[in-house]
Specification:
Blueprint (H helix, E strand, L loop, with lengths): L1 H14 L5 E4 L23 E7 L11 E5 L11 E3 L6 E3 L9 H38 L10 E3 L10 E6 L1 H4 L5 H9 L6 E4 L1 E4 L5 E4 L9 E6 L6 H18 L5 H23 L5 H21 L1
Helix pairs in contact: 2-5, 4-5, 4-6, 6-7
Length: 306
Amino acid sequence: MWEINDLVKTLNEEKGYQIGIHVDGASGAFIAPFQEGLPAWDFRLENVLSISASGHKFGESICGTGWVVFRHRENLAEHIAVSVTYLGGHCDSMTLNFSRPASGIYVQYYKFLRLGKTGYARKVANQMAVAAYLRKFLMDAKDPATGKHIFLSLDCGDTHCLPVVGARLNPEVTLNHFTDIDFQHALYESHWYVSGYHLAFENFRKGGELEPLASDVGTHATMFRVVVKSNLTYHLAQDLASHMKSVIKVLSHMKGYADFKAGIRKFKGAVHLVQKLKKEHSLESGELEDLADEVEARVRFGHSVC
């Protein structure tokens, strides 16, 4: 931001412009200010006119909490404000959808008072540490058959970034048997949800033709990410890593999520058979043995899935 400010200053002086900078803090507004080694980005930079932040992301407030702070009143465009008199007096409303509840503001103020700069700094440090643990787990995971890395990193590393882990399955290991989207759905079966994405977009200038987002991947490429919020503790991260390991092991013997889902159905069928065994005591010994063998096979498969 400091470099951008200098470039804008030079441009304004050379061209006679009056260009200002809006800092879209979004997620980073509650992460970057509390990390060591990063230069401050605030109104000390003369060309920064406004800064926005999303309190509901990493600010610990509730959904829909966000705001914009302006350097000076004159930097606030007139068309943003709506003049209202329904409260008996005259005032300006600057909310995007006019009337809004104040719960998000109260929660955010409470978190400011409760945590303070020190509390937010500790929170961010913990989130970064948990993200680093997950990142290391993913980068250390190797395919026992080939020795190749199972995952490829797509993020900026452990420092000076968001507590977000971005990665994709190594296509040299999965051999296109399953994708990151299959991985996402399979993890969801154990109540873990990671965000999966296709690394392609529809170019409507070319009639909706599908094109890759990067030059080194095809339109079929996918990825996933894990957003480390403050409630994702180290122990929960260990549980997530354990489920990731199990899911990869099972998916490597299947062809996508469809086969994985079929395995889940077999596991549920095994549970039903166990219940049937308990109720039907009049089975012949041969029938009971065959049924027990089927239950054992299904439970063994289901255990590997879950």
